[in-house]
C-alpha cells in the first residue's frame, strides 16, 4: 500500500491543498495513519477510488 501526503493527494486530484484538508475534515477522504509530524497519510488506492466517484458525480 502506497501512502500519500496531503500535497501528493492534491497533485493527484489536481485541487488545492486546502480542499484536501476540507475533504478530510468532512470524512470524504479518510487518512489511514498520521506521519511523525501528525499530518495525515492517505492510501493511494482510496484516493484513486474517490477520484473516480467524484468524476461520476459531476467532477471535483
UniProtKB/TrEMBL annotation:
Name the domain of life this protein comes from.
Bacteria
Tell me what this protein is called. Answer: Helix-turn-helix domain-containing protein
What is the originating organism of this protein? Alishewanella agri BL06
